[in-house]
Design goal:
This is Mechanosensitive ion channel protein MscS. This protein is of the alpha+beta class. It has 20 helices and 15 strands. The strands form four sheets. The protein has a five-stranded antiparallel β-sheet with strand order 10-9-8-7-11. About 30% of the residues are buried.
């Protein structure tokens, strides 16, 4: 697959900068707020069923979203309803002023997490370390000191649980009134872009965000280009495949991440409105997911291409088929998982889809059980390599030469020139005997001599046969020739040694020559090979030496 270039992604260049906001939430080292105490009344209220809050404050996600919408509409009295104000602040009617101050703090020195990262559960995130009544939703900096922005669960007017920006967060916002200064964006924007608004924000802020994204990407492109050049200059392997492919695979995703990190710094230092950044928060998460998927996609291609080259050098065509199949399967799985993650980010309920996918996967696995078994068997054959194409082997009762190892089955051509096709699931479970990779061949003939061969003749023949073996350079060291038994119709000599042949044909030639030399040695010594024979006794006949037997004593 050709690598994507900047020319092919003009739209992405305008949007990639928003990625950083999804990942740029450092944990402050100081000014941590302590979680509030858990009360039985709040727990009971949460467990009860309450009607929907008109302001959507039943969950942390709803509270943050409602506050952003209110300040975008410049409806600060409504935005104040998302703040946890104590009785003194409520009596002073400074709620709208505090809501505007909180917005200004987030505009210039704060960040809010993407909505998809916030809890949509009335109980909030119970697994974090903030306590059951607090959820972390962002960060802010005041006088050089960073702290977390929290929402806390409290009892609403109807007695039901609602989430509000915590009282400690609210108390820190008035400190900004005295030192508040116009952000850089407001200083440089012309009045026409400052006065005309869209979505509750000056148009200039939207344009500044897009300009920052393009600038961040250009800076990231220059940095990655220089780093890639230095890597290729100092590392010789990086100039050739497969290392070059891996370097290229990492280049674009790293460029995207670097661009968004630069963007978050630019957007925050420029004082771009939190409303603009929050509107694009889901898009930043999606771009981040796409960047990760793109990285994995390219790594799959790089690894597969590397494997293909090695398999081609080995002549393993079946392995190439497996590699291509695994690449397609991995990419399909990547697309499915990426789609589910993106849909979840956009707010779709993917739980039902995952359950249906799981049930469908089980049904598919049951229906294609043999197919899956054969595929697993083929992967096992490729991984373990008990045989290769061209090997002469014995599988179960089938003996022949392997002609093809496919995705579903393996083909063996027998000595009768027939083709036997064995499913890989059965093939991998059978006893496989491979004759092609023997380092030596057993030479173990038994010479059957006539009964009239004398012991001296046998001793002489043993020495002669052993010298024949020793004189052959292809015979392994320490060959053995022994008189092993007196058989039913012969005197048996056993030869036991190994022949160091390169292949089976050479072994047959050497075996033939050695047997002929042994036959010559037997005949030269006046000896001969025994033939299978038996003695037949007829009724009334006497044993061969019956008349020579001495009479028994006392007869």
């Amino acid at each position: 697959m050709p690598y994507l270039s900047v020319r092919k992604l003009p739209l992405l260049l305008l949007l990639l900068g928003f990625l950083l906001h999804a990942f740029a939430f450092p944990t402050p080292s100081s000014a941590q707020e302590t979680p509030g105490d858990t009360t039985e009344s709040l727990q009971e209220a949460t467990e009860a069923t309450w009607p929907e809050d008109s302001l959507g404050r039943r969950t942390p996600k709803g509270t943050v979203d409602g506050f952003i919408e209110a300040v975008a509409d410049e409806n600060y009295p409504r935005a104040a309803l998302y703040l946890n104000l104590d009785s003194t602040l409520q009596e002073s009617q400074k709620g709208p002023e505090l809501a505007q101050a909180l917005q200004r703090m987030l505009d210039q020195r704060g960040r809010i997490m993407p909505l998809s990262w916030l809890s949509d559960d009335p109980n909030g995130y119970l697994e974090d370390d903030t306590g059951p009544n607090l959820d972390r939703v962002g960060t802010a900096t005041v006088e050089g000191e960073s702290f977390d922005v929290f929402v806390e669960k409290t009892a609403g007017p109807d007695g039901g649980p609602i989430w509000l920006f915590s009282s400690q967060t609210v108390k820190r916002t008035p400190l900004l009134e005295e030192e508040a200064a116009p952000p850089i964006t407001d200083k440089v924007l012309p009045s026409v872009l400052e006065e005309n608004k869209w979505g509750g924000v000056p148009i200039g802020h939207w344009l500044a965000m897009l300009a920052s994204a393009v600038l961040a990407y250009l800076i990231a492109w220059c940095i990655t280009a220089v780093v890639t050049y230095l890597i290729r200059l100092g590392w010789r392997k990086a100039r050739e495949e497969p290392t070059l492919g891996i370097v290229k695979a990492f280049a674009l995703p790293i460029r995207l991440y670097l661009a968004v990190w630069i963007l978050v710094i630019l957007s925050q230092e420029a004082g771009i409105s939190i409303i603009v950044r929050q509107r694009f928060s889901e898009l930043t998460v999606i771009i981040g997911l796409v960047a990760v998927l793109l990285l994995i996609w390219r790594l799959i291609d790089a690894v597969t291409n590397f494997s293909e080259r090695r398999l081609i050098r080995r002549g393993n065509m079946a392995g190439i088929s497996i590699a291509l199949f695994l690449r397609r399967g991995a990419k399909i799985a990547l697309i499915v998982l990426g789609t589910i993650a993106i849909l979840g980010t956009l707010g779709f309920d993917v739980t039902t889809g995952l359950a249906a996918l799981g049930i469908g996967g089980i049904a598919l696995a049951l229906g294609a059980q043999k197919t899956v078994e054969n595929f697993v068997g083929s992967v096992t054959l490729i991984a373990d390599q008990p045989i290769r194409v061209g090997d002469f082997c014995k599988v179960g009762e089938t003996v022949g030469t392997v002609e093809q190892i496919g995705m579903r089955s393996t083909r063996i051509r027998t000595s009768e020139r027939t083709i036997v096709t064995i499913p890989n699931g059965d093939f991998s479970s059978q006893r496989i005997e491979n004759y092609a990779h023997r380092d030596r061949f057993l030479f173990n003939p038994v010479l059957r001599l006539k009964y009239d061969t004398t012991p001296d003749q046998i001793r002489s023949l043993l020495v002669t046969l052993c010298s024949i073996l020793v004189s052959q350079p292809k015979v392994a060291e320490d060959p053995r020739v022994r008189f092993i038994e007196i058989g039913n119709d012969s005197l048996n000599l056993e030869v036991f040694t190994y022949i160091l042949a390169d292949d089976f044909n050479e072994f047959l030639q050497l075996k033939e020559e050695l047997i002929l030399q042994m036959m010559e040695a037997v005949h030269k010594g006046g000896k001969g090979f025994a033939l299978p024979s038996q003695v037949l006794y007829l009724a009334g006949d006497k044993g061969g030496d019956g008349d020579k037997s001495p009479p028994a004593e006392g007869a």
